[in-house]
Amino acid sequence: MTKITMTVHGLHCEGCERSLETAVRRLDGVVAAKADRTIEQLAVEILPGRSDADVIRRRVEEAGFEAPE
Question: In this predicted model, what pLDDT tens digit does every residue of 15-25 receive, in sequence order?
Fold first, then answer.
């Protein structure tokens, strides 16, 4: 497995964390996703070759959050 960690802005509460985690987990190849609003970070475990940081970043933005590169 590969672990991707990225900064995410706009996580204000536990509900935001859960909403983002659910949205990212729906991507093909994502095994786990954990958002942490206190450090503005998202950690995602993916199966190699099934997803990448760009796909995850787009999903984060589709969910209403910011994921600067």
Answer: 999 999 999 99
